[in-house]
Design a protein that fits this description.
The complex is a heterodimer of chains A (about 500) and B (about 900). With about 500 residues, chain A is α/β, with parallel strands linked by helices. Helix content of chain A is about 35%, strand content about 15%. In chain B, strands 2, 3, 4, 5, 6, 7, 8, 9 and 10 form a nine-stranded antiparallel β-sheet that branches. Classes of the chains: A alpha/beta (about 500), B alpha+beta (about 900).
Chain lengths: ~500, ~900
C-alpha cells in the first residue's frame, strides 16, 4: 500500500474504533438507570425549528469529555494548525498581484471606490498606492507571490489560495472573533472548541486545543477568541506560554521536586482509592484518573513545549530562536503538538497592522520584517509536515482578519508619514494546505486593483464550513443547544468551498 | 418435525394476531395525554416544518387554533373526532413518498400513529404545558413509615417506592456538619458551632440549631449571592473589545445583603426589575436595578451606540426569561417560538418594557446613581425639606431626581449636523473646534428657561450661542465659556420658550491657532426650568446647595432610569430579529398565553412587569426559583434544565414536589428563600448518607430518585473559600470593590487597554471568592478551571466538568500552595507535637471526623518521603516555604507537601 492508502486505512480503522467506543458509551448511558448524559443531550438537542438537522451523534460525556470521538463522516484532516496574522497582513504586498494598481500609484482615489464606504481611518480622498513589493510567478501552478516571502514561494504547489475572501467587520477584535467564533461579539465558542467538542483529542496527556501567541501582545479580541462560549469550559483553548509555565499551573511548585510531586499524587490517589472503597462513587475513579493525567501532562507538556532537543537542521529550517518568544518557535511547537495528537493548534502573531503611521507599521519596513519572521517558519512547517507524512492529515490555514486598502492611508485627511494601507473588508487572501485541500490551486479573483472580489468570493463562514468539512462535520448539522436553539459555528451561513477540496 | 415446527409457528401467529387485536381494541379507548404523549411526537417529528418557524402547507401544530384551522388546501388537517377523515392521519399512512409525512424523513411508527389516531378520535384536545399553568396546592402523598421528616420526604418516598428503592440512613454528624456548612455558608463553620453540634446529645435538635445558626451568619449571603450573580451576569468590566473596568460592585453587595436579610423573593425581583419606579427610591432600590445594567457596553471606535443599546435591551429580555422564568425566549427574537406558546411580536412587546431607559451604550454608562456622603446627604435632606415647603411637588421631585440620578439629560454624543465638530475619542463625547456648529434634535423647550451642561474647555476666550431651529436661527442665549481643567457644570439662563425645537450650539474662539484644534468637550446638556422658588426665603442658600450637590464628586453606580415621557422611544418588531429592519410598532405587554397573571391594575411599564412576574398566578417565577434552590443543594434541578421548563426542557423528576415547593415559597413562606432552603436542608432526603450501594448504582446511578445523599464536586467558590478557611487565613472582610488575589503574570495582556492586575496585599489576598475582580474577557483562571461562569450573558446553570487542568490548579497554583503553607503552619502550631497528630488534626479541620488509620499512614509516609527529600535539599525547603521563617525548615516544608496533598483529596474537594 502507498503511504496515502496506509493513512486512509488507519483513519478508517480509527474511526471505526472510536465509533464503537462512542456507541458503547452511548449504550451504557442509555441502559444505565437514568441515562443522564444521554437524556440531557437528547432533551437539549431540540432545536429552533430545525429538528431534523441537529447532530445527534455528539455526546457530551462529562466524565471523559476529551476522549477521541468519531466524526459523522470520515474527514480528511485529523488536526488543524491555524496561523493567524493578527492585525491583518496586506494581500497587495504578498499574494494579490495588481500591476494596474501600480499605474494608479499617487493618483487620487476615484469617488466610485469611496461612495458609501466606511473605513477605520481613511477620511476625505486618499491617494492610490501601488504594490510595495516585487512579484513573480512560482511553481507549476504559476502562483504569484511577492519577494516578501522568498522561501514560501517554493511551496505554492502545495497550497490553495483563496484570493477573494471578504468580511463585514472593519475593526480587529470583531473581525478576529468573526473568523474564529462565527460572531463578531463575545460569547460564542471558537473553532478549536467546536473541534475538540466534536472530536475529542488523541492525546489525553496534552490539552486538545492549544493556543500560542507571539508578536508581543495577545490578539485584539483577547482570550474570548479561544474561549469555549456556551460549550463546557473543558473545550476552551489552553494557552501555552513561552514565558512562565508553558501551561498555567503545569510546573511543580517552587521547592517541590518531580519525585516529590509524584509521591504526593500517589498518596492522593491511594487515599482516594480508599475513599472509593467507602463511597463507591464512580466520580472518585474519574478523579483518580484526572490526577494521573495531570501528572502525565506535567511531564508531557513541558516536554513537548521544549524545542531544545530538536535537531539542528530543524532549528535551521524553522529559523527558531530557542529561549525567546517568537513565531518561529511557535510554528515548530505547533508541528510537535500535532504530531503528539493535539487536535487544534491556534497561533496568533501580533503586529501586522501596516497603517503607515510609523516605521514598524509601514509596508516598506515593518511589513517586510514581519514577513521575514514568518517566511522560513511557514515554509518549514509545510515541508516538515510533508516529510513526516502528516500534511495529508493536518489542515494548515494562514490568514488575517481582513485585508488592506489599495489606497494609501490618510489619517484625519493627512497623508501618513510612511507607506501604509487602512483596514479593508472587501478583499483579502487566505491560504490553506494539507488536510485534503487541493495542491497548487487558486480560488477566486479580485478586480484589477484588488479592491473587491469578482469571482470565487468567500467569507469567514465559508472557511469555517470548509474546515469543519475537512474534519468530518457537516457544518449545518454540527450544533449545540443554547438559549433554546441549536447554535452552530457558521450561524445561519457558510458554504463549503468545494473548489479547493482535493 | 417440519410439520410440527410449522404448526407451532401457526399457533404463535394466531396468538400474536389475537394479542394485537386485543391491544388495539383496548388502546382505542385509552385516554391520550396531549402533553406527555402527543406533544413530544409533534416536537420531534412535525414542528420543524409545521410550527413557529415554518408553516408548510399552511399547517401548524404550535397552537390549538392553528392545528384545527383550514390549511392551504382549504380544509383542516385535523377533524376532531374523525381520525380517518383527517388529512393528518392519511398523510402519516400514505405510501406515496411525496405525500407521506414527515416529508423525506422516517415514517412514524405504529405506536406513534396510534397515539395520533386516538387523540383525534378523543377530540384532539390541546393540553397546556404544565409549567405554563398556575401553581396549585398539591396534596401531600400519604406514605407509611417514619422516615419522612417533612413533606418533601413524602414526595421523595412515594417515587422511591415506585422504583423499589429504599432511602439511605442519615449521614453521620461530621458529614452533615460539613455538607450543611458548605451549602449554607460555602465554607467551614465557626469552630464553636461545629463543636456544639458534634457533641450535642440530641442530634436532631442540634442539627436544627446548626442550620439556624448557619443561616443567620453573614457568610450565608456571600455563599448564595454567587448563584444569583451568574444569572445577573455580574462582572467588574464592560465587555466587548476594550473590556475596561466598571464600578458596579455595589450591586454585588446589594445581592449579598438581600440574601442575608432574607429579602422576600418577590421584593428581590421587584427591586431589580423596577426599583427606580418606587416613590422616592432609596439608594438600595436604585442599586438593585443595576441587575439590568450588568449588560455589556461597547466603547470600541466606530461602533453604533444604538446597535449596542438594542443589544443590551435584548439581553435584558433574554435574562428575564431565562434566569427568572426558565424559558428560552431568545428564539422568539427572530420568529415565533417553535415549541412553546410565544409569538414573534410578543418578544418585542416584552422588549418594550425595557426599551425606554436612559442608558444609551455610552462610555460614561449614564445614568448613574449619585451617592452622597453624610455631610452632603444632610445638605440634600435640608434642600428636600425646603423644596417641599416652597415649590410644587413636581418641581421638588424633578430636582431631587436630577441630583440623585443626573437625569434626564441629553448625552452630547447624540448631537448631529456638525460643522467643525466631531463625536470624538471613540464615540465618547461631542468635541468642538473653532467655529463649531452642532445640532441637538427635537428638544422640548416648553417652559424651559435654562441650559445646564457639563463640559471641559482647554482654552479661554471662547463664546457660545444657543440658536433655535437652524444654524443661523435666532439666538436665545449667548455667553462666554469659562475655561478650566476637567469637566465642570455650567448654567445658562434665557427667556422661557415654547414648543419642540432643534437646538443649535455655535462656538467661536478668536484665540484658536489651528483649525483642527479641539477646544471644548461636552458631556451632557439639560434643558429645564431654572431653580424654582425664586423670592422665597432661603432661595439663594438652597440654590447654592443645589450647585454644591450637583458639582460634588460622588460615588456612582450604573442604574435604570426611565426616559421622560417627551423623549420616550417607540418599539418595533424587528423583522427576522435584526434591529435595522423595524416592522410594526408594538406596545409593552406580556405573551398572551401568560397574560392571565397580569394584575388588572398593573401599569404598562416595568413596574407592571414586576407585578406580573411576582403575581402568585405567574406559573414560572416561583417554580424557577424553587428549582434553582433545589439544584444548589442537591446538584441537579427537579427540572434539570434550569434554563428551560418549556416543552423542550427536561421533564421534572418530581413535578408534584416542585409545585409543592413553589406553592410553599409563595404562600406558606411568603416568598422567603431562607425558609424554603431550610425546609430542604431539614428534610430526611437531604440528610441521607451519600454512599453508593450496588442497588442504587444499578437502579439509579445518577441519583435521580434520591435514594442517597447528593455527592458532588465543590464549586470554584467553595473550593477557594473552604481551603482558605481551613488554612486559617480567610479574611472576614465583607463588601467593597473587587480584589485581585494572586494570579500568574501575563494573564491580562490586552492591547488598547492599560488595565493591569495588581496582586492584592494584606488580607485582600485571602478574601472570599465572591469578591474577586471579574474581568469578562479574562476571568480569574483558577475559578474558570472549576467551571465558574464567564458572565458575558445570563448563565442559568453551571455544568460540572472533571479535568486534569483542575487538578493542576489545586496542586500547583501558587495561591493554593500558599494555602497549603498556612495550613501546615496551623497544623504544626495547633496539632500537638507528633506529626501524626498534626495531620490528624488538619484532617479533622477539613472533615470534622478522625482520619482513618490507612489514610493517616499514606499521608505519614508522604511526610517521611518529603522530609528525607528536604533534609537532602534544605534549599528547596526554604523555597516551598516562600520566605516563611521557621526553626525547622525540612520538617515544616514536608508538612506543606502533606497539606497540599490533603487539600487535593477527593473528600476535600467534594461535598459528601
Amino acid at each position: 500500500m502507498t503511504r496515502d492508502e496506509l493513512n486512509a486505512h488507519r483513519l478508517v480503522k480509527e474511526a471505526q474504533e472510536t465509533e464503537l467506543r462512542a456507541f458503547t458509551r452511548r449504550h451504557f448511558l442509555k441502559e444505565s438507570a437514568m441515562g443522564l448524559g444521554a437524556v440531557a443531550m437528547g432533551a437539549l438537542l431540540g432545536s429552533c425549528g430545525l429538528g431534523g438537522k441537529t447532530n445527534n451523534d455528539i455526546l457530551y460525556d462529562p466524565v471523559h469529555p476529551l476522549l477521541p470521538k468519531a466524526p459523522p463522516f470520515l474527514g480528511k484532516a485529523k488536526s488543524v494548525i491555524y496561523l493567524h496574522m493578527a492585525g491583518a497582513p496586506s494581500q497587495l504586498e504578498l499574494f494579490d498581484y495588481k500591476p494596474e494598481l501600480m499605474k494608479m500609484d499617487g493618483q487620487d482615489c476615484p469617488q466610485s471606490l469611496l461612495a458609501g464606504k466606511k473605513f477605520a481611518f481613511i477620511t476625505g480622498v486618499p491617494k492610490m498606492l501601488g504594490p510595495q513589493a516585487k512579484f513573480a510567478q512560482h511553481g507549476q501552478s504559476r502562483a504569484w507571490v511577492s519577494d516578501n516571502l522568498p522561501h514560501f514561494s517554493t511551496m505554492v504547489d502545495d497550497v490553495s489560495f483563496l484570493k477573494a475572501v471578504s468580511t463585514d467587520q472593519f475593526n480587529h477584535a470583531p473581525a478576529q472573533l468573526l473568523i474564529h467564533t462565527g460572531s463578531p461579539r463575545l460569547g460564542r465558542p471558537s473553532m478549536g472548541s467546536w473541534a475538540t467538542y466534536g472530536l475529542g483529542t488523541e492525546n489525553q496527556n496534552l490539552p486538545g486545543f492549544v493556543v500560542l501567541t507571539s508578536g508581543g501582545s495577545f490578539p485584539d479580541a483577547g482570550k474570548s477568541i479561544w474561549g469555549s462560549g456556551f460549550l463546557p469550559s473543558v473545550y476552551q483553548g489552553v494557552q501555552c506560554r513561552s514565558e512562565g509555565d508553558p501551561v498555567l499551573f503545569i510546573k511543580d511548585p517552587h521547592g517541590m521536586s518531580r519525585d516529590l510531586r509524584k509521591a504526593s499524587i500517589d498518596a492522593i490517589n491511594a487515599s482516594n482509592e480508599q475513599e472509593y472503597a467507602a463511597y463507591n462513587d464512580p466520580e472518585i475513579l474519574s478523579r483518580i484518573s484526572q490526577y494521573e493525567m495531570a501528572y502525565r501532562m506535567q511531564i508531557s507538556a513541558p516536554e513537548v513545549m521544549n524545542i531544545n532537543d530538536e535537531p539542528e537542521y530543524i532549528h535551521e529550517m524553522y529559523g527558531t530562536q530557542p529561549g525567546k518568544s517568537c513565531f518561529a518557535n511557535n510554528v515548530l511547537l505547533a508541528r510537535k503538538l500535532v504530531e503528539k495528537g493535539v487536535r487544534y493548534v491556534q497561533l496568533f502573531d501580533w503586529g501586522w497592522d501596516a497603517h503607515g503611521d510609523g516605521p514598524n507599521n509601514s509596508l516598506n519596513i515593518g511589513l517586510k520584517n514581519k514577513c521575514r519572521s514568518i517566511d522560513k517558519p511557514i515554509t518549514a512547517l509545510l515541508l516538515d509536515l510533508k516529510q513526516r507524512g502528516l500534511l495529508e492529515e493536518t489542515l494548515v490555514v494562514w490568514g488575517g482578519e481582513f485585508g488592506r486598502t489599495p489606497m494609501m492611508e490618510n489619517r484625519n485627511g493627512v497623508q501618513n508619514p510612511y507607506n501604509g494601507r487602512d483596514h479593508h473588508t472587501d478583499a483579502f487572501t487566505i491560504w490553506m494546505a494539507g488536510g485534503g485541500i487541493k495542491k497548487g490551486f487558486t480560488h477566486g479573483e479580485t478586480d484589477e486593483i484588488g479592491y473587491s472580489g469578482v469571482s470565487g468570493k468567500v467569507d469567514a463562514f465559508d472557511i469555517q464550513a470548509t474546515i469543519l468539512n475537512q474534519l468530518g462535520f457537516d457544518h449545518e448539522k454540527f450544533t449545540y443547544p443554547f438559549q433554546g436553539r441549536p447554535f452552530r459555528l457558521t450561524d445561519v451561513a457558510g458554504k463549503v468551498i468545494h473548489d479547493v477540496i482535493a | 418435525m417440519k410439520f410440527f415446527r410449522n404448526k407451532k409457528l401457526l399457533v404463535l401467529l394466531v396468538l400474536f394476531a389475537v394479542v394485537i387485536v386485543c391491544s388495539l381494541l383496548m388502546s382505542y379507548d385509552k385516554k391520550v395525554d396531549f402533553n406527555t404523549e402527543v406533544k413530544p411526537i409533534i416536537n420531534k417529528k412535525c414542528i420543524s416544518c409545521h410550527g413557529g418557524v415554518k408553516k408548510q402547507g399552511g399547517f401548524s401544530l404550535l397552537f390549538h387554533e392553528e392545528a384545527i384551522a383550514a390549511t392551504k388546501s382549504g380544509k383542516p388537517a385535523i377533524i376532531p373526532g374523525d381520525p380517518d377523515g383527517s388529512e393528518l392521519i392519511k398523510r402519516l399512512l400514505s405510501k406515496d413518498p411525496e405525500e407521506r409525512m414527515p416529508y423525506k424523513h422516517e415514517a412514524l411508527n405504529e405506536d406513534e400513529i396510534d397515539i395520533f389516531k386516538r387523540w383525534i378520535k378523543q377530540g384532539a384536545k390541546w393540553g397546556d404545558h404544565w409549567a405554563y399553568l398556575p401553581v396549585k396546592e398539591v396534596e401531600i402523598p400519604d406514605v407509611s413509615g417514619d422516615w419522612a421528616k417533612n413533606d418533601i420526604d413524602k414526595f421523595i418516598l412515594e417515587k422511591l417506592d415506585e422504583q423499589e428503592l429504599k432511602p439511605s440512613a442519615e449521614a453521620d454528624r461530621p458529614t452533615l456538619l460539613r455538607r450543611a456548612s458548605l451549602d449554607l455558608i460555602g465554607m467551614a463553620p465557626p469552630k464553636k458551632l461545629a463543636e456544639q453540634y458534634l457533641t450535642a446529645k440530641d442530634g436532631d435538635k442540634a442539627y436544627q440549631i446548626l442550620v439556624d445558626s448557619l443561616m443567620a451568619s453573614q457568610r450565608f449571603g456571600e455563599k448564595w449571592a454567587s448563584m444569583w450573580l451568574d444569572v445577573a451576569r455580574y462582572a467588574d468590566t464592560k465587555g466587548y473589545e476594550a473590556d475596561v473596568g466598571r464600578n458596579i460592585w455595589q450591586y454585588r453587595d446589594w445581592v449579598i445583603r438581600a440574601f442575608n436579610k432574607d429579602m422576600p423573593y418577590n421584593e428581590f425581583v421587584t427591586e431589580q426589575i423596577a426599583g427606580d419606579f418606587f416613590t422616592d427610591p432609596t439608594d438600595a432600590q436604585y442599586i438593585a436595578t443595576a441587575f439590568q445594567r450588568n449588560t455589556m457596553t461597547n466603547d470600541e471606535g466606530g461602533t453604533n451606540n444604538e446597535e449596542f443599546r438594542v443589544a443590551a435591551v435584548l439581553d435584558r429580555v433574554n435574562t428575564t426569561w431565562e434566569g427568572l422564568l426558565s424559558t428560552t425566549f431568545a428564539c422568539v427574537q427572530c420568529h415565533s417560538h417553535p415549541y412553546d406558546p410565544f409569538k414573534h411580536d410578543e418578544f418585542y412587546k416584552f422588549m418594550a418594557y425595557f426599551n425606554n431607559t436612559r442608558d444609551e451604550d455610552i462610555s460614561s454608562e449614564y445614568p448613574l446613581l449619585r451617592q452622597y456622603d453624610d455631610s452632603l446627604q444632610t445638605k440634600l435632606t435640608s434642600l428636600t425639606e425646603w423644596l417641599k415647603v416652597n415649590v410644587s411637588p413636581e418641581k421638588s421631585k424633578e430636582i431631587h431626581k436630577f441630583l440623585k440620578t443626573g437625569q434626564p439629560v441629553i448625552n452630547s454624543v447624540i448631537a448631529d449636523s456638525m460643522v467643525n465638530a466631531i463625536i470624538g475619542n471613540n464615540n465618547i463625547a461631542l468635541f468642538f473646534k473653532n467655529n463649531a456648529v452642532a445640532r441637538i434634535p427635537a428638544v422640548n423647550l416648553n417652559k424651559v428657561d435654562q441650559l445646564i451642561y457639563r463640559y471641559s474647555s482647554g482654552k479661554p476666550g471662547g463664546s457660545m450661542q444657543l440658536r433655535l431651529d437652524k444654524p443661523g436661527g435666532p439666538v436665545i442665549a449667548s455667553w462666554k465659556v469659562p475655561e478650566g481643567p476637567g469637566y465642570r457644570n455650567l448654567a445658562v439662563d434665557f427667556k422661557a420658550q415654547t414648543g419642540v425645537h432643534d437646538v443649535y450650539l455655535t462656538y467661536t474662539n478668536p484665540t484658536a491657532t489651528n483649525r483642527d484644534e479641539v477646544i471644548v468637550y461636552f458631556d451632557w446638556f439639560r434643558f429645564s426650568p431654572q431653580f424654582p422658588g425664586k423670592g422665597k426665603p432661603g432661595y439663594e442658600e438652597n440654590k447654592a446647595t443645589f450647585w454644591t450637590l450637583l458639582n460634588a464628586n460622588v460615588q456612582t453606580i450604573p442604574i435604570m432610569v426611565e426616559n421622560p415621557s417627551d423623549r420616550s422611544r417607540k418599539t418595533f418588531v424587528f423583522k427576522r430579529g435584526a434591529w435595522i429592519t423595524p416592522g410594526a410598532e408594538v406596545h409593552a405587554g406580556v405573551p398572551k398565553s401568560l397574560a392571565y397573571a397580569m394584575p388588572a391594575n398593573a401599569p404598562q411599564n416595568r413596574q407592571g412587569l414586576a407585578m406580573w412576574l411576582t403575581d402568585k398566578r405567574n406559573p414560572l417565577l416561583s417554580r424557577t426559583m424553587a428549582n434553582r434552590l433545589w439544584e444548589q443543594l442537591f446538584g441537579t434541578g427537579i427540572v434539570e434544565t434550569l434554563e428551560d421548563m418549556g416543552t423542550q426542557g427536561m421533564n421534572p423528576t418530581h413535578k408534584e414536589l416542585l409545585d409543592h415547593l413553589s406553592w410553599q415559597l409563595m404562600n406558606d413562606y411568603k416568598w422567603s428563600m431562607k425558609r424554603l432552603i431550610k425546609e430542604m436542608v431539614m428534610s430526611a432526603t437531604y440528610r441521607q448518607d451519600s454512599k453508593v450501594t450496588e442497588d442504587t448504582k444499578k437502579k439509579d446511578l445518577f441519583n435521580k430518585y434520591y435514594a442517597r445523599g447528593s455527592r458532588m464536586r465543590l464549586t470554584s467558590e467553595q473550593i477557594r473559600d473552604q481551603h482558605l478557611s481551613v488554612s486559617g487565613i480567610l479574611s472576614a472582610k465583607m463588601y467593597g470593590p473587587g480584589v485581585m488575589p494572586w494570579q500568574p503574570n501575563g494573564i491580562w495582556n490586552s492591547p488598547y487597554n492599560g488595565a493591569t492586575w495588581n496582586n492584592a496585599t494584606g488580607e485582600d489576598q485571602f478574601r472570599r471568592a465572591i469578591y474577586t475582580y471579574w474581568k469578562r474577557s479574562s476571568p480569574y483562571p483558577s475559578m474558570i478551571a472549576f467551571d465558574g461562569a464567564q458572565r458575558v450573558v445570563c448563565s442559568p446553570r453551571r455544568i460540572r466538568t472533571n479535568t486534569p487542568l483542575q487538578a493542576l490548579v489545586t496542586l500547583n497554583d501558587s495561591a493554593y500552595i500558599d494555602m497549603a503553607k498556612y495550613f501546615a503552619l496551623r497544623m504544626k502550631k495547633e496539632g500537638g507535637k507528633e506529626i501524626k497528630s498534626q495531620i490528624a488534626k488538619g484532617y479533622e479541620w477539613m472533615m470534622y471526623k478522625p482520619i482513618s488509620g490507612a489514610k493517616l499512614k499514606v499521608l505519614d509516609n508522604l511526610y517521611l518521603t518529603a522530609l528525607n527529600d528536604y533534609k537532602v535539599h534544605p534549599d528547596k525547603a526554604k523555597q516551598i516555604l516562600g520566605g516563611q521563617q521557621t526553626d525547622k525548615y525540612p520538617e515544616t516544608a514536608a508538612l506543606v507537601v502533606v497539606a497540599n496533598a490533603m487539600l487535593n483529596l477527593d473528600e476535600a474537594v467534594t461535598k459528601n
